[in-house]
Amino acid sequence: MADVPLVAVAAEAGISRSTLLRRIGGSRTALDDAVRAAGVDPGGQASVRERAIEATARLLGSDGLRAVTLERVADGAQCSVHSLYAAFGGRDALLYAVYEQYSPDVDVDTVLEAPQQGLEETVRSVFRIVADAFQREPRVLPAVIADALARPGDPAAQAVYQKALSTMVENVGRWITAEIAAGRLRDLPLLPLVQQMIGPVFSYFLLSPIYERFNQVSLPNPEDAIETFTEAFLRAAAIPAPEA
User: Which of 3, 19, 95, 212 has the greatest number of C-beta atoms within 10 Å?
Assistant: First the structure.
């Protein structure tokens, strides 16, 4: 539609181009809006699918999962709700498309597979990667976790969650196993040790936007929180080096 000149539209309507412009307010914006409202993408910009994914990611980052209604997405994407149904089939498929595109890789293996830099610095580096994943804009990772927790029986929601986080958990577990074998971490059950390591930092960055609204709570800055979590994990799980 964007490639059709106004003179051709006017000829099809049996009026002059100047009359057409007068009737639509001086520019083709109103005409494009009317075409869009009828469920047709007039073109001349990114596809409905691309615009909807971007608009949904913005909504997730600013207002959270519950704010993502098809009406608000359509408004942000400058399309009709009908166009969203045509592109995605429904809200769930739209969310999964956003998760696929914007879920950050919690790429801890770049640290864990690098030459060892010491137990304390490795733990601290892993926490920084997790913190970066939670704070990266648009903030989609919290929505992925919330959706997975809200729908534990939904295979699609669980598949997205596993894609975003399972590799990180597997790599951390493999690293912890090697550290236990090397005598640097206590020989404790693996899953509780993984949770002991990444659970607190997950909780901090997932819930910080909520805690910030509590007047009686004073949150440490992210770097101070990382230092606290590093010290706490090492006190709980590390084997002290033998004294000389």
Answer: 95
Give me the pLDDT at residue 95, please.
87
42, 36 contact by CB (below 8 A): yes
Distance CA 217, CA 243 (A): 40
Contact in structure between 108 and 171 (CB atoms under 8 Å): yes
pLDDT at residue 105 above 80? no
pLDDT tens by residue, 135-184: 888 888 888 888 888 888 878 777 777 777 777 888 889 899 999 999 99
d(CA 105, CA 168): 8
CA distance 129 to 96: 23
Cβ–Cβ < 8 Å for 77, 48? yes
Quick check: 44 pLDDT over 70? Answer: no
Average pLDDT over residues 194-217: 85
Q: Which CATH number fits domain 109-237: 1.10.1060.10, 2.60.40.10, 2.40.440.10, 1.10.357.10?
A: 1.10.357.10
Mean local confidence (pLDDT), 18-40: 79
Largest CA distance in the chain: 97
**Where in the chain are the domains?**
1-44, 46-92, 109-237
Residue 243 confidence (pLDDT) above 70: no
Phi-psi region of 105 (alpha: psi -120 to 50; beta: other; left: phi over 0): beta
Q: In a 10 Å sphere around its CB, with 0-12 CB exposed, 13-18 middle and 19+ buried, how is residue 175 labelled?
A: buried
Residues contacting 225, CB < 8 A, separation 6+: 201, 204, 219
